[in-house]
Structures are given as C-alpha cells and as structure tokens.
C-alpha cells in the first residue's frame, strides 16, 4: 500500500549518513549527459561511484553503481554500441565496467549495467541498496514521497515510487534478473524480494552468500566477468493524481521497460496433439475420473481428492471449447455434464463445493469465496452458448451468489460457511486481507447474468462490486486468474456503460496482475529445464507458477482484448498479448513427460496423489528458484489448458490443405477468396508474432505468399515439407494466399 514518507521509515544506516556527507563535498565528475528533460551526472565519491539524475528545480535521484571497499581509480573509456558512456573502475577487488544507455521517446529511459571481474576469488559479504531520492541540497532525509509497489517473492525485480517533494515525479526501477543468472548460479543465491527497501534507502539489495542460508560458498571466480546489476529506470514528470492513473502509468512504464529487454525465445508446441492425448487420458485413465451416484466426475489430482464443482466445470468448459473447435463434441463432455446437478443444494439454492457424499475428513459446508463464483462463470459460458441445462443451473444458483456478495459488502473472506455465511478464515496470513479480487470474477458472472436475462439488477451488482475494490491500489491480487477476470469485467463494464472509470479501473487489475509476474528467465537450479518468463505466481504469496491459473488468465485476457481492442493503452495491449504468446510456449513445461525425472519432486502434498508421466496432465507447480517441480501434485483439472491453447492458437481452414497457427490472439480471420485469407492480429507493431502454416495429414503444401495490408511481402523464416514459419508484425492485417 502506498504510504507517504515525510521522514525515514526506519532508523537510518551508516550508508545513508555517508551519502549525505559525500554528496555535499565531492565534486569529482566523471561525465555528464542529458536525458530528455533530465540531466545525468556520474560522480566518484569516497568509496562509491554514483549516477545523479536531476530534474532541474525539481529534485534528484542518486543511483549507486559501484561500492568499493578499497582505494580505486576510475576513468571514462570508449563507449560501445548503444551506450552513451562507459566507466571503468579499478580497485583491489578487481575491475568494474559500468555502461550507461539512454533512450527518449515518450518517456525518459536510462539503463545502467555493471560488470565485475574479480582479481581474485571473491565473496561479496554485503552491498547496500542502490537507490536514494534526494531532497533539497541533495539531502535524502529531506525527500518526501511514497512507494507504490516493490518486488514480491521471486517475481519481477521492480520498484515503483513517486518523489513528491521536491516534485521530481514518478519512477519505475527494474532490475533485469535474466542478465544476473550467472551471478546467482555462481554464488548459489536467489533474488527473493531483492528490490524494495525502506524510504529513503531503496532499490536493489544484491543477494550474497553471507545473507542467504544454504547459498554456495564458492563465490565469484578470479578473472571471470559477471554482471552484478542491470538496472532500467523509466521516468515521468507528473505524479499521478489517483490510483487508476497510477496503475495506467505503471503499465505504460513497464511496457517501456519490456521493450528494452532482450526477450527469450518462444517455442512452437503441438497443442492439438496434446489436447487429443489429454482427452484420451480423461476418458480412459482410472486415475483421472471416479463414479458417484452413477455419474462420472473428475479427480482434482491423479487418483486423489474428492470431486468438486470448480474442477468439474473447469474441465467441462474447456472440453466444450475443444468440441466446438473439432466440429463435434467429445462423448466425455456429455458424461461429465450429467452429474453437475448433484452439486446443487435445493435448500440453499446454490452449488456446493463437494458432492453430498464427501468424506468426513472434509468440511462439507466450507467454501473458499472464489469457489462460489468460478463454477458459475464456466456455467455462464455454456449457457451463453445455448446450453439449456447449464442456463437452468446457472439461474437457479445466481440469487444465492448475489446474496453472498451483498452479505459481505463485496469484500469477501478467504473461506466461509455456505449455510449461514459465518466466517471460517477471514484473511490470508501473507497480507492480512481476504480474497481481494473475488469482486472481479463476481462482476464478470453478474455481466453474464445480465446478458442472459437483461435484468438491470445484475449490471448494478457488477458495478457495485468493481467500485468496492477502488482504493485497493496494487493490493487487488489474491489469485492471478481472478485478477485477470477482474480486468476483463472492468473492460466489459466500460463497453456497456461508456464510463471511463471502468476502463481506468481495468488498469488497476492489470497492474496488480503484472506486479506478480516473473518478468525474467530464471536459470537457477531445475528452472534451467523450463521457461519462467512472463509467468505469474498463482497467489499473492505463492512461491510457484501454476498451470490452471496460467490458462484461465489466458481465457480472461482473450475477453479483455476483445472488449478493449485498439482503445486499450498501447503498452497494456502489448503486455497482455505478449503474456498470451509466452503462455503458449511456457505452459508446455508443466507436463511431466517434458521434464527430466530429476527435476520432478519424488513426493507430493499429502492427499494429492502422485505424478504419472504417462498421463497427459500438467504438474501444478513450477518454481522460479529452481525447486523440484510437482511438489503440490499433478493437476487433472489443469488438463483443460491443452484444450484452451489448442482451440485459440490453431485455426482450421475449410477445404484447405493446412491448419494455421498463430501465437498472438487474432482479432479476425476471414476467407476472402478460394485460396486467400485475411488475418487481423491483436497486438502492437513493436512486437513480433509467429505465424505458421502446418500441413494436414494426407495433403501437400503448395506455394504460399504472405503480405501485409500495405502489400509488402513477408518472407518465410523457415520452411519444410510439413510447415512454413513466418515472423510477422504484432498488429495489423495480413493476406495469405496459396496455390
């Protein structure tokens, strides 16, 4: 939560005292350069090298780029490509090379990369944080402002804050952990909550083996260069007037950072084959399903846990989409639908989490708040697709859903008793709050009810729920997919009401979602075997990324893009489409048949069954810090991801010898001739999508031509007898023709 700081929020350290003294006395300037309206001065002081970033007459920010523990010599040297300045520092511990890069489009951007080559085997015991807002007379104790967001767990190493007195403005600081993988591996450290601090000592606290128990004692090798910091700073002059504008600016500034990163590759995967294998295992594997009351139900985990309504509906809805894509439903979809009514309690007029015969080891009356609404969301999807049984069950349950929301005044606890609303668990230990983003998914369900019935009361409920979340700032996120649905609900409300507050509030949900994103590619431990980039940890305090939240967020963002379209903030459009692109690549790594056996935990959470690599169901948990995967278990309900990804990324073309793949969601695909398609992509021109023509069995690929709407030819990136690959702009229209 943002908190104005008129004075230090904790006892000051000697480093802060020394900084005040050094900046007031030192005048050893190594170089100066301009950056838009800013001025940057690189200065050597008693034991450090600082970059001082000034906004004339409006304060400054000091960035410590090197701390030396012995006498040092520094000099400006020839700069490399893309650099505005390069400084070399020689000291007893070795050589620091400090590279400065700048860019100025709409926003001022500064990148500072520090590479250390030790002169002897080296263990760094401690380095202070590297960022200090400066007040009058360059005194950090006279700077006032607040921190809006800082790094959570092992997510993106970011710090978003404002300096209000002097009126320096809004700053996003981002530490690019991808560039620091070699340092983490050599020292055995992990950058957990490494970017943060207490005003006015902020920024990056380099993790060291002395600080972290269990870290390697090997340290850094002599004469081997290693990057110890890769900081990107983005600036805005005006501090935002309210949380919605603060969130929009955060998304805009994070998008600016994103464009400065060296993005990891994405990989093509055959999700159609994976979906076929998952459907086969759902139908045949004894560990996937169980029968009660003569009906078929899904095991949440392989051979384990009681059937529940969220799991059942998650698989049913995904299967429904897969059947539509195939052109005919699978028999198992109808089988799984038959038993849905058994979850309904006619006395309470609501769906219960468990079947009536659930074991005594479960509290049959306990329900997590989000569990009440997510099954209704998936029922609503089916109901809006003309499924009469789903519509009836949805409408039979909707009044209780409203009653619960009104009872809790749109601020839900973690868990309550479904019979009387008594609270079982009010808040989460991590942050002392309830399920803060349930209001978003509730709003989406209300909008589904409004579409089904045209009753204004449901629209009013959606608005009340979203408005109740105003004021949560960056603390909206409880569970990633719920936050994504909140963004989608806000966007839909904006389209219905034309009130800009809902468009603006969608950025609050999106900012909170991205705050929990792992915007770096970890190579720590077992993470070297899978992808982490742009994953989102499933809960606000969870140490892992989860498949279910991954694909459900993907579905929510599909709706967000459909309703937002070109009216979205450009960086929001870019980040959402990039999230979906990387999800298609990254999610493949959840499947145990993809990972080496040593990367999978030998034990799963008690009562969560076991891992069977022969089954095409994903593991629940992958860890950015490289812990063994699958400690929680193997999600049968996560199997819906294969159906979702296959039905969104692969496109059947009638009477054509090929299938089309695109890792960007499409705004439209139109057959404009017997052998011509017009394809319109979501996204931005600054990003690249992958478009592939994939040969169908028993057919041959002929000659293909791909052009932009302007008539420019797009050359194939790679081709074979089975596939033609193109890299295409992330936005606009393309025309594909074939012979």
In helices, the fraction of residues equals: 25-40%
Structural Rg: 27 Å
- Walk across the major sheet and give the strand order: 5-6-7-8-15-12-11-10
Average pLDDT, rounded to a whole number, is: 95
Q: Can you count the beta strands?
A: 35
Q: Which residues form runs of ≥5 with pLDDT under 50?
A: none
* Beta-strand residue percentage: 25-35%
Number of spatially distinct domains: 3
**What would you call the quaternary organization?**
single chain
Q: What is the CATH topology classification name of the largest domain?
A: Glycosyltransferase
Number of helices: 15
Structural class by secondary-structure content? alpha+beta
- The CATH class designation of the largest domain is Mainly Alpha
